[in-house]
């Protein structure tokens, strides 16, 4: 193995090797520049400024299509919270996906996109009466209830046969970060299967004349690698279906399929998931003598994460006693994931290679924890004015962005076939001032 081959595999960014599987489909290195959707990132940075979130449309559509092709019998529901943007909702609608929303706000984006109500599912452990009313008014096809209070509240607001799924906590450990593990007992989501609350919730829904129970739902967590965790969820959920005593026609397994963030990490084994989950579902249903429900999956990250790349400009480099800090013009306001989940990213310097040395890429915010990437290799001569590209920023970046320090949020620029257009414009100081009274 040559050094150039070895360095990327251990997290090093050298020119011109591109780390496998992290970048949008079709990304390539050309003359020191990086081409995404056929466009050089240096041009994108010059035209749209930095920080800038670049989003490759072909990658989003391709991943959405792959879910449909690999799971033709299932309803594939895009988790709208991962990249809330009407244009992206239109792309996934085009690809035949449904959409899940978790608030009236996300529903407003879906409406703006003209997303068909019969393909929308509403989620959330808390739905305010505004959320529920907006959903009923738009006629979303299913609402996933998450508490006894909500069953009563929705029962009172709905007028005729609102279709409902019950969110179940199946007690499955998805082996992911605790802040995104939602299938285990003793957290705020769902009705516990083990305690009998899930069965009780089913009965309460059935008792409400204005509600129609169509399915059971679970979501075991996010950034889940193991297919076995989903198989275990299927076993438990089918056991519950068998004890419901009423026809359950849909089984929603939620999302959570992992995306690779760093060199050497692999993508989710979607094909293996389809085969193993299909097999387990058919077997368990035969065992329990219940009809096989229609499967639903709710991928978010696995569709959009690797379609996104964030461009930052280096503003300052500080060479300390033990570490070199490379400070950029964004930070935790456009990517709080390292601070929240200890997430780690690869970073690439655009325009030149060089002997790599480890640096810490930090943001511009007034927090010591505002670190974008720790201990990443960049060419030793990295300096102010350099352009950096961070891949795998398509999921939960725009969604989680904030105005901390009144820094304006970056645009999301869609690229496809050599054409770039903002689908979310850069926030301005006028936008900021508009809210203050
Ligand atoms: N379905 C439900 C009910 C969910 O709560 C979620 C994500 C999904 C589907 C989609 O999960 P995905 O396929 O995207 O993993 N902010 C965190 C992730 C939070 C996930 C919340 N729920 C992050 O940046 O990692």
Overview of this structure, please?
This protein has 437 residues and is of the alpha/beta class. The chain has two domains: 3-56 and 305-434, Lyase, Ornithine Decarboxylase, Chain A, domain 1 (Beta Barrel), CATH 2.40.37.10; 57-303, Alpha-Beta Barrel (TIM Barrel). Helix content is 30%, strand content 24%. The chain is built from 13 helices and 21 strands. The protein has helices spanning 3-9, 41-48, 57-70, 86-94, 104-112, 129-138, 148-157, 197-207, 227-244, 270-288, 301-304, 337-341, 429-433, and strands spanning 28-30, 33-36, 39-40, 52-56, 75-79, 98-101, 120-122, 142-145, 162-169, 191-192, 211-217, 250-252, 294-297, 308-319, 324-328, 348-350, 356-362, 371-379, 387-391, 412-416, 419-424. Strands 4, 14, 15, 16, 17, 18, 19, 20 and 21 form a nine-stranded mixed beta sheet that branches. Helix 5 runs parallel beside helix 6 (129-138) and helix 9 (227-244) runs parallel beside helix 10 (270-288).
Low-confidence stretches: 1-5, 7-14
Instruction: Supply the CATH superfamily name of the largest domain.
Output: Alanine racemase
Number of strands: 21
Rg on CA atoms, Å: 23 Å
Helix vs. strand class: alpha/beta
Shape: globular
Total helical elements: 13
Beta-strand residue percentage? 15-25%
Biggest sheet record: 9 strands, mixed
Q: What is the fold-level CATH name, i.e. the topology of the largest domain?
A: TIM Barrel
> Which quaternary structure do these chains form?
single chain
Bound small molecules, by name, code or SMILES, are: ligand LLP
Helix content: 25-40%
Average predicted confidence as pLDDT: 94
CATH architectural label of the largest domain: Alpha-Beta Barrel
Distance between the terminal alpha carbons, to the nearest Å?
Answer: 62 Å
CATH class of the largest domain: Alpha Beta
Overall tally of domains = 2
């Amino acid at each position: 193995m040559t050094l150039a081959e070895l360095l990327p595999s251990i997290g090093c960014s050298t020119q011109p090797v591109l780390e496998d599987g992290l970048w949008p489909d079709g990304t390539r290195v050309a003359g020191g520049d990086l081409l995404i959707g056929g466009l050089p990132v240096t041009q994108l940075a010059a035209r749209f400024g930095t920080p800038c979130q670049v989003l490759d449309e072909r990658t989003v559509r391709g991943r959405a299509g792959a879910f449909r092709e690999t799971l033709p019998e299932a309803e594939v529901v895009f988790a709208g919270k991962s990249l809330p943007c009407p244009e992206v909702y239109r792309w996934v609608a085009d690809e035949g996906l449904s959409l899940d929303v978790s608030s009236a706000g996300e529903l407003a984006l879906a409406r703006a996109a003209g997303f068909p109500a019969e393909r929308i599912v509403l989620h959330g452990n808390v739905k305010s009466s505004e959320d529920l009313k907006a959903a009923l008014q738009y006629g979303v096809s299913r609402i996933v209830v998450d508490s006894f209070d909500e069953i009563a509240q929705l029962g009172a607001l709905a007028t005729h046969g609102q279709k409902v799924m019950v969110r179940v906590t199946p007690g499955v450990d998805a082996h992911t970060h605790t802040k995104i593990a939602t299938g285990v007992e003793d957290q705020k989501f769902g009705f516990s299967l083990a305690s009998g609350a899930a069965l009780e919730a089913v009965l309460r829904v059935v008792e409400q004349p204005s509600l129609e129970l169509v399915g059971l739902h679970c979501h075991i967590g996010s950034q889940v690698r193991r297919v076995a965790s989903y198989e275990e969820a299927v076993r438990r959920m089918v056991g519950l279906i068998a004890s419901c005593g009423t026809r359950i026609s849909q089984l929603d397994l939620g999302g959570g399929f992992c995306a690779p963030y760093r060199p050497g990490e692999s993508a989710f084994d979607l094909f293996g998931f389809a085969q193993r989950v299909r097999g387990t579902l058919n077997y368990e249903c035969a065992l329990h003598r219940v009809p096989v429900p229609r499967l639903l999956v709710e991928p978010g990250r696995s569709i959009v994460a690797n379609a996104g790349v964030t461009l930052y400009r280096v503003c300052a480099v500080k060479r300390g006693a033990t570490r070199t800090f490379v400070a950029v013009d964004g930070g935790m306001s456009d990517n709080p994931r390292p601070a929240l989940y200890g997430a780690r990213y690869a970073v690439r310097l655009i325009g030149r290679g060089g002997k790599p040395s480890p640096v810490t890429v930090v943001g511009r915010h007034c927090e010591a924890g505002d670190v974008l990437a720790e201990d990443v290799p960049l060419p030793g001569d990295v300096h102010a004015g350099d352009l950096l590209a961070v891949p795998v920023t398509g999921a939960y970046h725009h969604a989680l962005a904030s105005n901390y320090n009144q820094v304006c949020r970056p645009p999301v620029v869609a690229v496809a076939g050599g054409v770039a257009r903002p689908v979310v414009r850069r926030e301005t100081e006028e936008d900021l001032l508009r809210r203050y009274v």
